[in-house]
Amino acid sequence: MASPAPRPLARFAAPGLLLLASLALYGGGLLPGRAFFYRDVLHYYWPMQATRFALGGLPQWNPFHQGGLPFLADIHSGVLYPPNLLFGVFSFPTAYALLLVLHHFVGQLGLFTFLRRQGLEALPALTGTLAFGLTGYMAGLSNFGPLVSGLTWTPWLLVVLQSRLLPMRKLALLSFLIAAQIVSGDPQSALYSALMAGAYVAWFPGRKEPLVALAGAGALGLLLAGVQVFPTLALLAESTRGGSTVGYLANWNLHPLRMAELAFPYPFGEYLGAPQFWAWFMVKGPGSIPFAVSIYLGVTVLALGVLGVRRDRLTGFALTLCVGGLLLALGERSPVSFLLEHPPFRFFRYPEKYVVLVAFGCAMLAASGARALITGPSRRRLIPILGAAVLMLGALVFAWAAPDSARGLSASVLQAANTRADPNGPLENAVRAVGTSLCFTLALLGLAFLALRKPGVRAVAMGVLALVAVDLLWTARKTVWLGPASLYREPEVATRLKERTGASPARLFRMDKPLKGSAPPSRSYEGLVQLREWELGTLKSNLAGVFGLEEVTSYSAVELRRWRALMDAFAQRPQKVAELYAGCLLLVPPQAVPTSGPGSEVLVSEPSLGLAVTKLPDCPARLRTVTRTTAVADLDEALARLASGNVDTNQEALVEGGSSRTYGPAQVSGVELGARSARARVVAGSGGTFLVFATNSYPGWTATVDGTEVPVQVADAALMGLEVPEGSHQVELSFTDEAFSSGLQATLAGLVLVGLLLFVSKRREAQAEQAQEPTPA
Prior knowledge:
The chain is of the alpha+beta class. The protein is 49% helix and 12% strand. Strands 6-5-7-9-8 form a 5-stranded mixed sheet. Strands 14-15-21-17-18 form a 5-stranded antiparallel sheet, with no helix packed on it. Strands 10-16-20-19 form a 4-stranded antiparallel sheet, with no helix packed on it. Strand 14 and strand 15 form a beta hairpin. The two termini are 43 Å apart.
C-alpha cells in the first residue's frame, strides 16, 4: 500500500512554530504602546542609532558623547550591519523589537537545522531548539539586542561546518557568517562560534577538512570585516580595554550558589517582584542586577538532558560546551580564570555571558533526551529524575509541616550570607521555585511513564515539546520587561535647552552623583518605569545626543583612556572637567544652584525632577587661545599638574611633547563647528599663539593653517591643540579615521578572494561533471 503524500503545508510547520516561539518571547515589543526599555536599550542603543542617522552617511566621529568619540570604530554601534538599517525606517522601539524577533527566529531555525542533520527527528529537534531559544539567558537578552543579532549566526556556522559543500564554498560561506558576527554589534559572538566550532571539530570525524575550513574562514572573515576591524583595533589601543590591566573581569562573574537557578526559576527572588531578590552578595558589577537577568535552563530541559546522555559524539560535544561554558562563566572563581586575562577573552567584559555555551550544550542534550523519551526511556535513566522529584517534594513537605524550623533555617542562611532580611521572604522564594520545578518534573515523569507503556506515541512527543515551551515561557514572562513607548519621546528639558541655546551645538555636563539623590526607587516594575522616566527627563547617559545636544559625561561600551583618566582625576571636582571640555551647561540639583553672583543664570528648572540647568560662569569657548604653554612628558605628569590646582587652563595649556612658551593676546572669530570638523579665524600677535580645541584627542584629527597642515598636539591630558603663527589665519581641524582606508582595502581584498574561491569551486565542479559524462562509442 502506498504511503500518503506529505501535506503541502507540513514543511512549514517547524518554521511556523519557531516563529511563534520568537513572537511569544519578544513579540510584546511589537504591540502598540509597548517597548523594550531596560539597561542598554534606552541609554545606549537608542542614542547610538539616533545619532548615527542624524549624522548621516558613514559617521566616523561622534561629537555627542564624552566630549567626542570615534563612531565607526566603536564596533558595538553596528554601523555596518545591514539589518540595522531598519532603524532608519521604523521608530526605534518597533525596529528594535522587530530585529529581536527576526534574529531570534533565524537563529532558532539554524539550531533546528543543525539538530536535524545530526539525525534527530523533527519533534526532538524542535524540542532542543526551544530548549535554547526560550531559555532564561535568551529571555534576558531582550535588553541587549545586538547580542541576539550576533548569536543568530552561531548555529548556522555549525550547519555549514557539518555540510557537504565543496571545501571552497564552505570556506566562503563560513567567512561571511563570521564577518556578519563581527559587525553585528556583538563581536563576542564570533568568539562563541570559534569555541563551539573548535569543540565540534574535536569531537566529530574528518577533523582535517573542517579545521582547515574553520581556520581559513576565520582569517577571511576578519578580512571581510576589515572596514570595521581595522578602525576598532586602532580604537582599542587608545581605550581602557587596551591597557595592561583588565579590572572589568571582576564584574558580573557567575556566583557558584547561583547555579541553583539553572534548575529552579528565581530561587533567590525576583528582581522586580515580591518577595524581593535577597542574595545581593552574589551580584558584583556596574549594576545591582546581574548581567544575565536569568540563567534558568528549565528543569524539564535538564531532565531531558539526563535522558539524552549517550556514548556518542553529539553528547561529547554538548557536554564540552556545558563544562567549558560553566568554567568560563565562573570568572575569577574558575580554575581557568587565567584564560580570561589573555586575548581574545580579555577584550570582552562580564564572564557571566559564557552561560550561553551551557545553554547550547543543554539544548542539544535535551533534543537527544526527547528522542529517547518518545521511543521509550530507560527505566534506569528515570531513577535520578524520580529521585530529584522526591527530594523536591520532601523539601516542600518540610516547609509545610515544620514552618518554624524552615524559618530558622532561612534565618541561618541569611546570617551566613551576612544579609539582613525577613526570613519569610527567602523561604517563600525557595518554596515557590521548588514547587514550580516539581510540577514540571512530575509532568515530564508522567509523559515518560506513558511512553513506557506506548513507545512512539505522537501525543508524547507533542507533550514533551509543549511542556518544555511552557516551562521556559513561564519564567520568561518575569524576565522580559516591557514599558510604555512614551519613554521614547523628547523631554521638556531638551526642548527648552535647544530653544535657549539656538543653532550652535550646546555641550552639557551632567552631575551624575548629586542628581542620583533625586532618582526614584526601582525595586518594582512601576518603580523601574518611573526611574526611566526620570532618567529621560534629566538626560542621563547619552540621551542628550538623541536630541542633538552634546555631553561630556555619558556611558559608552568603549571609553578613551585619556578621557577616563581625566574624569577619575577630577572625580571630586567634576566642574573642572566641564571647564576643560567647554561643557557650559551644568545639569545639577536645584539646591546646588548659586543664589547670586555673576554667571549664575538658571536656564531650566524642573523641581519635580530635582533638576536645574545652569550656565557655567565664564565658560571657555570650544576653540580658545592661551597665553602660555608648559611642556609635560606624558599623561601622568599632565594629570598631576592639573590636579594640583596651580594651572589656570583658561590661560595655560599643558602640552605633551611640546615646548614651554609665552604668547601674546589673540582673537578667535568666525567659529564653525561640524560633526567632525571645526574652523575659525585666528588673529595672533607677535610670536603667534596656541589654540586649544576642547575635543578628545584621537589619531586621525588633522589641522591646517591657511591650507598648510600643521602638527596636532595633546593638550591638557586629553584635548588637542596647535600652534598658530602671528597674523590673521584661517584654521581648520577635521577628522578622518586613519584605519578606515586600510580597512576598506582589506574588505575589498576579502571580497575578491571570496569571488576567486567561488569561481574556482564552480570551475572544478564543472570539470568533475564533465569527467563523469560517458564517452561516445
